[in-house]
Amino acid sequence: MGNPNRCSVIIVGAGISGISAAKVLTENGVDDVVILEATDRIGGRIRKEEFGGVTVELGAGWIAGVGGKQSNPVWELAHQSNLRTILSDYSNARYNIYDHSGKIFPSGIAADSYKKAVDSAIQKLRNQESNVVDDDDEDDDDSILSETTPTQKTPIELAIDFVLHDFEMAEVEPISTYVDFGEREYLVADERGYEYLLYKMAESFLDTSEGKILDSRLQLNKVVGEIQQSRNGVLVKTEDGCFYEANYVILSASIGVLQSQLISFLPPLPRWKTEAILNCEVMVYTKIFLKFPYKFWPCGPDKEFFIYAYHRRGYYTFWQHMENAYPGCDILVVTLTNEESKRIEAQTDEETMKEAMEVLRNMFGPEIPDAIDILVPRWWNNPFQRGSYTNYPIYVNQQLLRNIKAPVERIFFTGEHTSEKFSGYVHGGYLSGIETSKALLEEIRKENERKTEGQAFLIEKKLNILLYNTVVI
Ligand SMILES: Cc1cc2nc3c(=O)[nH]c(=O)nc-3n(C[C@H](O)[C@H](O)[C@H](O)COP(=O)(O)OP(=O)(O)OC[C@H]3O[C@@H](n4cnc5c(N)ncnc54)[C@H](O)[C@@H]3O)c2cc1C
Predict the structure, then answer these.
(1) Are residues 215 and 229 in the same domain?
(2) 317: which residues sit within 8 A by CB, 6+ positions away?
(3) Structural domain contains residue 154
(4) Is the CB of residue 143 less than 8 Å from the CB of residue 297?
(5) Residues 348, 299 within the same domain
(6) Least confident range of 77-91, 371-385, 391-405, 424-438
(7) What does DSSP say about strands 264-266 and 224-229: parallel, antiparallel, or unpaired?
(8) Residue of 321, 337, 354, 340 whose CA lies nearest to 286
(9) 219 is in which domain, residue-wise?
(10) Ligand 1 pocket: which residues have CB below 6 Å?
(11) Which end of the chain is more exposed for a tag (fewer CB within 10 A), N or C?
């Protein structure tokens, strides 16, 4: 106390959860907040980049969960901002499965394999459900959802397994996003990028001019390295040697960052918290963009997604052409996950391009042109991300979730990983920010109440002493 630079709340991270948390606080009268963001921009895992003449999304690309009974709040934000979006129909992918020699699997075989894979995944889930011991004191068996040994499956089965589990799981699992908000997914295809939603949100409570945020409450290039807390407040240190004091902290860094120990805590976080953080599985999801001099792949909406069936699971399996999003852009996207993502992050982009070209030549023949550009995001090696999103198993240990989310004294945790229903999604991040700030506002209210009661008690005590002295005199 006493420091004029002390603010009410420091928010670490300016991704969607940090920005939505700050917005709720300022709307509720707590406007002396400071947002410390490690990078030179807001948005976090919502990030656009210019590539091949268009805007591509390196992180979140879709608004998932649209068309249901309830409205997805991110879909509403997109509407308010007039964001350009394109409906994605993944279901056509199953009819565009290529084998190693470039033949498309006949639709009957593909449909049968698909049905078999879905049925077997559902069966595994049922087994898992019946194995789950209620209330969480047993370790999670998330191995049930992991793939079986590759050798047991044919290339088409491996490819479908990959698509179902690493990409699109709605047909297997009752995912809250689809149950609550609907099953449609819209690809953001807007030159302003998905991140435009964040700027619009920030604009409503931070000072801006000509599309730039010029408010000292947002501090960019501030890498938080240490958070100290005492009974009375928090002290946050950034790597450039600055100190910030506040009554509370909202920490929105991803679970991968929390696992990485980029931020140290004094006193250290309690064991229940560190264990929960370490037990959380982080998914790496990488979209590789390839630009070509001209297109050589089949076009049309029902050809947007295609699959490469290969004996190595997840090896350049899932492809998308970007003609529906940006006609004439001549860009393909291939999605890799987890170990394959980590592998390609560790090699040069030229090596990755070579591998991708070999796969494309297997599918479309030796005559196709070389790609003229490649873009490989590195979410795993990004020290401020360390992965793409959390991957809670469907029958998640509820105590784990509660512990991930629970505050530790004056440090409140937010971000997609703290969302019980929508972890892994943009709307999960958005809603978690709102929820965390509401919980913090309640805590502030209680603290104020305690202070007022304490002060009233002191005044009463002083009055009693005064009265006693007067009577004695
Ligand atoms: C490749 C990829 C594809 C995805 N696809 C989709 C999709 O299609 N649809 C969908 O809904 N979701 C998707 N997601 C998930 C979605 O992007 C995230 O769930 C959401 O953006 C997370 O927001 P957040 O605020 O929780 O975290 P973040 O966006 O990570 O924000 C946290 C912020 O904290 C900052 N930070 C970290 N450490 C520090 C520190 N020490 N000091 C200061 N600042 C720090 C980071 O720089 C970051 O800006 C995808 C994610 C990725 C990576």
Answers:
(1) yes
(2) 159, 162, 163, 307, 308, 309, 310, 334, 335
(3) yes
(4) no
(5) yes
(6) 391-405
(7) parallel
(8) 337
(9) 7-46+195-280+386-450
(10) 12-18, 36-39, 44-46, 59-62, 64, 222-224, 252-254, 257, 262-263, 285, 287, 379, 384-385, 388-389, 415-416, 424-426, 428-429
(11) C
Instruction: Give the C-alpha separation, 166 to 338, whole Å.
Output: 9
pLDDT tens readout for residues 113-140: 888 888 887 777 777 766 654 444 444 4
Could you tell me if 391 and 344 lie in one domain?
no
pLDDT higher at 91 or 150: 91
Question: Taking the alpha carbons of 231, 232, 237, 241 in that order, is the dihedral positive or negative?
Answer: negative
- Which CATH number is 41's domain given? 3.50.50.60
Residue 308 and residue 406 share a domain: no
Question: What is the rounded average pLDDT of the residues 376-391?
Answer: 96
Q: What is the DSSP letter of 166?
A: I
Does residue 392 sit in the same domain as residue 254? yes
Domain at 296, CATH number: 3.90.660.10
User: Which of 352, 375, 398 marks a domain boundary?
Assistant: 375
- Closest ligand 1 atom to Cα of 62: 8
Q: Which residues does 284 contact at the CB level (< 8 Å), separation at least 6?
A: 337, 338, 341, 342, 379, 380, 387, 388
Q: Is 318 a member of any domain? A: yes
Q: Say yes or no: 273 and 354 in one domain.
A: no
How many angstroms separate the CA atoms of 248 and 6, rounded? 10
In a domain, 464, yes or no: no
In a domain, 53, yes or no: no
234, 238, 235: which is closest to 224 by C-alpha?
A: 238
Q: Please state, as a whole number, how many other Cβ atoms lie within 10 Å of the Cβ of residue 210.
A: 5
Residue 224 assigned as binding residue = yes
